[in-house]
Design goal:
Layout lengths: L4 H21 L1 H7 L8 H23 L3 H22 L7 H24 L9
Helix pairs in contact: 1-2, 1-3, 2-3, 3-4, 4-5
């Protein structure tokens, strides 16, 4: 690994994750400052924020953890959890909350279980012999 790639991944991952949280928590502010593409849609910005948070988390974790699957599952789990929250917050804005929220919650739980399983496994135990 190059000397600069780990710090780069930490900083950029944290920055993208922070921007994602901004879009999720304050979609109007994010829209006014950075995403001035009409029409304004709070739920869409929350979904984008969830994705950015997941990607940033994956980059950040990749800099700290030597196993790529842990970084990938960390990003997926972060995205899934925040995505569920976006649909809970915006349940009255459209979509199909009776289906979307439970389905996304199941995906979040399963992805989190996969992450925990990977964290508990012995590195290299999945390699063919």
């Amino acid at each position: 690994m190059n000397r600069w790639t780990r710090p780069f991944a930490l900083v950029v991952g944290a920055t993208v994750a922070a921007q994602g949280l901004w879009a999720f928590i304050a979609p109007r502010s994010f829209f006014d400052a950075l995403a001035t593409f009409e029409p304004y849609n709070a739920h869409f910005l929350r979904d984008i924020g969830a994705g950015m948070f997941g990607v940033g988390t994956a980059g950040f974790v990749a800099a700290l953890h030597p196993r790529p699957l842990v970084a990938g599952l960390s990003g997926l789990t972060a995205f899934q959890v925040v995505h569920v929250l976006a649909h809970v917050i915006d349940r009255d804005r459209g979509g199909n909350p009776g289906f979307d929220i439970p389905m996304f919650a199941v995906l979040a739980v399963l992805t989190g279980v996969a992450l925990l399983s990977e964290l508990r496994s012995t590195p290299g135990s999945d390699r063919p012999r």
